[in-house]
Amino acid sequence: MVLHAGGDKRTQNQDIKLAKALARELSEIVVAKTKTRPWDVAEHLETGADMAAYLAAILEDGDSSLVTAALRDIARAKGMSAITRKTGMGRESLYKALSSQGNPELGTVLKVVRALGLKLHAPTEQNRIRPAHGHRPVA
To answer: How far apart are CA 128 and CA 115, in angstroms?
Structure first.
């Protein structure tokens, strides 16, 4: 809020009310013009290298629900229709398997990974895959 200096005591309350009203109007204008939307990782997975690095980072974590989510993100980035064709799975089955409540079987995971054009890699703990940009993982 901005208050103008130089007023006198007789108009001080009126000046404060006017300043508050102007601040509210400005806030409403700014909020009305500001549009946000949730961040979607699928919009940023543009290349096979992006997708591989994303999945590799998730596999490092070892959380199966994150792996399922990552596969879903990559499938959305590539197009779910194309993935259903390549896996031979029905669209509903694929969505269910990759949903946040899904618990896909290993066979399903392997089909999806293959359809995405990716491979699962199992390095030893000493020879883990280096993340993108040549940075070494923190142990």
So the answer is: 24
Give tens-digit pLDDT for 72-125: 999 999 999 999 999 999 999 999 999 999 999 999 999 999 999 999 888 787
Q: Are the beta carbons of 73 and 55 closer than 8 angstroms?
A: no
Q: At a CB cut-off of 8 Å and minimum separation 6, what does 75 contact?
A: 83, 94, 98, 112, 115, 116
Among all chains, which residue has been given the structure tokens 């390549």? 86
Distance CA 139, CA 105 (A): 29
13 alpha carbon, distance to own chain's centre: 48
From CA 70, how far away is CA 24, in angstroms rounded?
Answer: 43
Looking at residue 105, the DSSP 8-state letter turns out to be: -
Nearest CA-CA partner of 58 in 48, 50, 43, 69: 69
Q: At what angle do helices 80-87 and 64-78 cross, to 10 degrees?
A: 110
CA torsion 52→55→61→66, rounded to 10°? 170
Scan for tokens 């040549």, then name that residue. Answer: 134
Q: Is the dihedral of CA 103, 104, 109, 115 positive or negative?
A: negative
